[in-house]
Amino acid sequence: MPTRLKDNLNNRYFEAANQLTSKRARRRIVAYVESYDDVFFWRTVLTRFENEERYFEVMLPSHRKLERGKKSVLMNFIGHTELGRDMIACVDADYDYLLQGATAQSKRVLDSPYVFHTYAYAIENLQCYAPSLHNVCVAVTLNDHRIFDFENYLHQYSEAIFPLFVWSVWAYRSGHHNRFSLTDFARVADPGGFNVFDPQPSIDHLRRKVSNKIRQLQAEYPDNKAEYLRMKDEIKALGVTPQTAYLYMQGHHLFDTVIVPILNKVCNRLRMERQDEISRTARHYTQRCNEMSCYEHSLQDIRQMLKKNIGYVLSTQYQRIQQDLEAYLTEQ
């Protein structure tokens, strides 16, 4: 049986099942997501909207073929106007939000009332939401000493990459991404080595790399100034500011190459502080060993804590997701 026909029958089954159940039973809405990591994120998003009338079940797009990914999710929905009431798709925005319908996939993501997206590039960007990163450090190290200003650093980082970010969006909107790909952008946006107590050289180095790449692009596209300025204005109108560009760059690059290395260095310092405190204040050897063992067993893994970080609930992007869901549920 063709996949689309199966999905159509599945949705009709969900609708029929909801109609046949008791009026007191809650309506079941299936929310398909891209991967295992997305399940927890979208469960956090959707929980607020559950009540005595409805609940959500978050799952991958197929149990039969173990299919994953954005395309797999969207293929189950797009083009079927009869789908949607009891089946929705929840995906990363990637560049589709910024492309504003310039590609077929972008148009599908933005136009369908049953497809919800992150507004940020991916869930990883929201997990790296700057105001929440100190709390991640506390969860990992159990040390609440603020030794690093994540918000200031990521503001400066974003301001440094923003001019090149505009070029990146332009390349994908205009079909020139084969000359300046996301991989090319990520390579330049790598901050490289960085000192917790003196991060400015890292930002200065990044600015030089960005300037060099921009000069190269300007030489390659000398007549693009007006188009570039128009693109910058459009991007800003979508809510992207020079200080928040990190939320819209490739998510796994931000997570793996920018944030995790910083967290490793900050958390190592915070662990050392706590261990030094234990060594300094212990009354005797046995107490020091017992306290050190207790502390070390309480430490958490940085990557896992970052994946479980829900500090993004205070972000504008998260609030926009909530507004979209409220509008969808109001119309049902």
Task: Tell me the layout of helices and strands.
Elements: H1 3-20, E1 27-33, H2 36-47, E2 54-59, H3 70-75, E3 87-91, H4 96-99, H5 104-111, E4 115-117, H6 123-127, H7 133-141, H8 150-174, H9 182-188, H10 200-220, H11 225-237, H12 251-281, H13 285-298, H14 302-307, H15 316-331
Helix pairs in contact: 7-12, 8-10, 8-11, 12-13
Can you tell me about this structure?
With 332 residues, the chain is an alpha/beta fold. The chain is 59% helix and 6% strand. It has 15 helices and four strands. The chain has a four-stranded parallel beta sheet, with helices on both faces. β1 (27-33), α2 (36-47) and β2 form a beta-alpha-beta unit. α7 packs across α12 and α12 runs antiparallel to α13. The mean pLDDT is 89.
Task: Describe this structure in a few short sentences.
With 332 residues, the protein is an alpha/beta fold. The protein is 59% helix and 6% strand.
Key words describing this protein structure:
alpha/beta; 332 residues
Helix amount, in percent? 55-70%
Shape assignment: flat
Task: Compute the average pLDDT.
Answer: 89
Number of helices: 15
Strand percentage lies at: 5-15%
